[in-house]
Design a protein that fits this description.
This protein is α/β, with parallel strands linked by helices. The protein has two domains: 111 residues, Aspartate Aminotransferase, domain 1; 245 residues, Type I PLP-dependent aspartate aminotransferase-like (Major domain) (Aspartate Aminotransferase, domain 2). 39% of the residues lie in helices and 17% in strands. The model has no long low-confidence stretch (mean pLDDT 96).
Length: 368
């Protein structure tokens, strides 16, 4: 029986390459055996080498969970307690706002600079807040805010962090492996990400990279057993074992995906590939009079948001695309009724893009 191939245009999980999918089909391993400890060390070493700026002075830990688990673990483990400072959250979408919810849940002192979802981070407002609140020691924000597809200007945010000695806690769940991350210039303290987005691995594993000095620093209260990342670090960089059961097949896939990324030229080549795909998708949609929410210059290479044509609701569009073999994604919050999102990660070939262009014409052409 032939299995229909779906092309996932949602912001993760992604359509896997045969190479990565085949890595999932292995013999069964116990996560407490030495061979899995060796695999854990191998993956952690490969993760810090994705970017040259984290190859020295950073260590990684893996945990079973989504990217959200990694972000919450990072904040729970590294955001300061009340006697050690305060975290400023820069939010211009769902995921920045979620960081604030996490800090509230873990009773970590913080304040939020809330921006419009369609607006960039207001650097002048950030500067004023930092001047007014010298107790702020950490900044937490999202690199690629998939609510809209905006790539936040981390060069500007990072320059403030570096000049003022503030630790940057970064949600790079939807950018790690495809957008630039400058650990030194941004004063990056820790970054959270996941296997099943730009790295093209299977769902189930997420990870956090943090400076070695941060791992060695006195621990703050985490308010969580499962998300205490220092316990993962002590195990994975000690005997190689994790405190809890890991997703073993997903680890096989992640190792292969990291090798595939390296063989393909690394994150910079992946960014070039994504940019080409995103530009073609935008051109094809423009031919059907479908407009992007943001300018291309403000958008990531990974995902972009588009306005639904008048008279076309999302369920109708979603189901039509799914019949054509593509899975698109809804807008969130205020954009749920009139917007859709298209990511371009994973195993997407030229033939797939041709078929997608035909689907655009079939589905949106009557509304143009």
């Amino acid at each position: 029986m032939t299995v229909k191939r779906n092309i996932l245009l949602n912001p993760g999980p992604v359509t896997l390459t045969d190479r990565v999918r085949n890595a999932l089909i292995r013999d069964d391993w116990c996560h407490r055996e030495p061979e899995f400890a060796t695999l854990t060390r191998e993956i952690n070493a490969a993760l810090v080498r994705v970017y040259t700026g984290t190859a020295q002075g950073f260590s990684s830990v893996m945990l079973t969970g989504s990217g959200t688990a990694a972000v919450e673990g990072m904040l729970a483990s590294f955001a300061p307690d009340s006697d050690a400072g305060e975290t400023l959250v820069l939010a211009n979408g769902v995921y920045g706002e979620r960081m604030a919810k996490m800090l509230t849940a873990h009773r970590k002192p913080h304040r939020v600079l809330q921006g419009e979802w369609t607006a960039p981070i207001d650097i002048a407002a950030v500067t004023r807040l930092l001047d007014e609140h010298p107790q702020i020691t950490h900044v937490a924000t999202v690199h690629h805010e998939t609510t809209t597809g905006r790539l936040n200007d981390l060069d500007a945010v990072g320059a403030l962090c570096r000049s003022r000695g503030l630790a940057l806690l970064l949600d790079a769940v939807s950018s790690f492996g495809a957008e630039a991350i400058d650990a030194g210039a941004w004063n990056l303290a820790a970054v959270a990400a996941t296997a099943n987005k730009c790295l093209h691995a299977a769902p189930g594993l997420a990870f956090v990279l943090a400076r070695d000095a941060l791992w060695a620093a006195p621990a703050s209260e985490t308010g969580s057993v499962y998300l205490n990342l220092r316990a993962y670090h002590a195990g994975q960089h000690g005997d190689g074992f994790s405190p809890f059961t890991q997703a073993v097949p997903a680890a096989f896939a992640l190792r292969e995906a990291l090798a595939e990324l390296g063989d393909a030229g690394g994150w910079e080549q992946r960014r070039r590939c994504y940019r080409d795909r995103a530009a073609r998708i935008e051109r094809e949609l423009a031919e059907q009079s479908v407009e992007p929410l943001l300018d291309a210059a403000d958008s990531s290479c990974v995902l972009r948001s588009y306005r639904l044509p008048d008279g076309c609701d999302y369920p109708l569009a979603h189901d039509a695309f799914k019949r054509a073999g593509f899975v698109i994604y809804a807008g969130q919050g205020q954009f749920a009724a009139n917007m859709f999102r298209i990511a371009n990660m994973g195993a997407i070939g030229a033939d797939d893009l041709d078929a997608l262009a035909a689907a655009f014409a079939d589905i949106f052409g009557p509304y143009a």
